[in-house]
User: Fold these one by one.
Assistant:
Number 1:
Amino acid sequence: MNRTLILAGALASLLAFGCGKQSAENKAAQTAAQETAKSQAPLYKAFGDSVQSTSPPLALADAMKSPSKTNVVRVMAKVTEVCQKRGCWMMLTDGSSMVRVTFKDDGFFVPKDIAGKTIIAEGLVTEEIIPESDARHHAEDAGKSKAEVEKIKGDQKRITMLAQSVFLPVN
């Protein structure tokens, strides 16, 4: 019986130490994999709401096909212009479509030097009627000439985006 207890104890010790070693190896491999994934993932600086959706970004053209005042979408697009007074709006393009983006409750602004960067924006894409005076103001903010501003006549129908968050690449 003593012999059986010794064998059972030895077997239990072997299993305990063997599992511990395997667990440590697995843990090291898992940590290494996580670090590799972090180093390969693009890093973003959040403006606005920092909770990023897990859904893949839509093409801007696809998001613009179905404007909605209730459906938050996530798009990845290139910044073509930014308000040079405060960074209170930006223009995005995906090559075929363009949209003016403003920021929820004017709660945040973006850096004025991000033209040319590809960003992720989350928010509502809607169709709006812009009064002539606002359309002219937007044109002035964009640095349009006086002649270009004066060409704007009447209210303007536009697809716009009200972003709740913007993610700029850090690197």
Number 2:
Amino acid sequence: MLFITACSKAPVTNNNNITESLPTINTLAIAYLTSTGVTSGGEITDDGGSSITARGVVWSTSPSPTISLTTKTIDGNGSGLFSSNINGLTSNTTYFLRSYATNSTGTAYGNEISFTTSPYTVYVAGGEDNATGTERYAMLWKNGQPNVLNEGPGNAVAYSVFVSGNDVFVA
């Protein structure tokens, strides 16, 4: 495993004589990749003696992204495993991603991974029941993102997709 930290701060001793240091975190492998989204996350194996106040992943088209960027997730706090879903990426683009964890000493980063989004857009047609199961909606999923095609009462299902240029036809 590769461990990368944001800085080389020396451990500090708090008022309770407990030595605190940066957390230890590992970036999880890519679990789901489309042309516009990805799922990753991290595992915080040591909180450094201080509570984890923020955790997530940060990404960029340049190596070594930091939490100063707006392209990051905020996935709660505490140690252990967490998952991060990223959407709105540009297709056919290489990104650099790493997990982060912040405690009172500072922010530590997990190992950096790179990935390239798919150059293709994937469409899937079908149907999905509403929350109560009383109606069925025709659906179109574009790169895993659902879109309801019909509104109002009634049951419907989409069976096929035809793409011509920027036009998408569903039957």
Number 3:
Amino acid sequence: MGQSSVMVSGGSSIVENVVRFGGGGVYVSDCASLQMVESLVGNNYAMRTGGGLQFVGDALGVISGASRITNNTAAYGKGGGVLATDLSLLGVVLVLAEGVSVACNAAAMDVGGGVALTGDASMVVGCTCKSCLKFVNNTALSVNIPSDIHMDRDARTLLLAAGATCDGRHG
């Protein structure tokens, strides 16, 4: 199977979608990639996991340039804003770069209100400016803990660069 790549840019919006399983706004899997620049993923609802975005199976996600992931909900699973999960050899790689905001997302019955990393997933946060990446008011309601970023014990890496900010709510 060949690789697929999707570019979302120029103020595009992926909003108000409802899905039965995972990836309320976008579901990326099987060696595919998503690049998002200056766009919005908002008000999406997944009945299970990955309210806004879900990356599975050696997928790559690069999100940058004032992109916003806001007000998404994973009703019965991890990753209100973003879920990166994988059990394959290479693993999912999620890159959050300058200007990205992950805010007001909810994992209603699990963990990782903003971003959840499970399996062999890795997240790299690349910033060179002060407060260039923001995680704000993300919640994991089932455990009643505010949760910007959650990493399961199998997740590979979380690299936070200078200038990245969280509101101090980690689960």
Number 4:
Amino acid sequence: MALSKNRIKYIHSLEQKKNRKADKVFLAEGPKLVGDLLGHFPCQFLLATSEWLSRNRPLSTVTDATEVSEEELSRASLLKTPQQVLAVFRQPDEETDISVISHSLCLALDDVQDPGNLGTIVRLADWFGIEHIFCSPNTVDIYNPKTVQATMEVSHASDCIILPYPSSSAH
């Protein structure tokens, strides 16, 4: 099945936070990242080369997997060098629970603007056993494609949960 222009347009629209937030999805690219996220987040759809699909069967958790050529993947990908597979996953529904502050190691981030820096912070927080990260409204979106790429598999592998700052009315 050929990759439609509408699907490519949709994938590119996920560069914008408003579109990711409206659909509650995020984009992941590359064999390691997509492979690590499968089974941990519901996969809305997956595009992959025949080579990747042949090495990664069965995909029981994926209901919409499409085999694409390298050229089609290149047109859909947000990366300069596409890496065999990309997938759109559903964002988890996370509730902000202020009580976690009293019984777990937490990190609060304010105004982190660079997606790569946020990804690095998340990886380090995971390594140090930090269970919850609270991000101010001015912090870059954790589901920004560059942030997702920088965190690699951390955002699902640990108990590291990214939450918005609790509102002042929660005190």
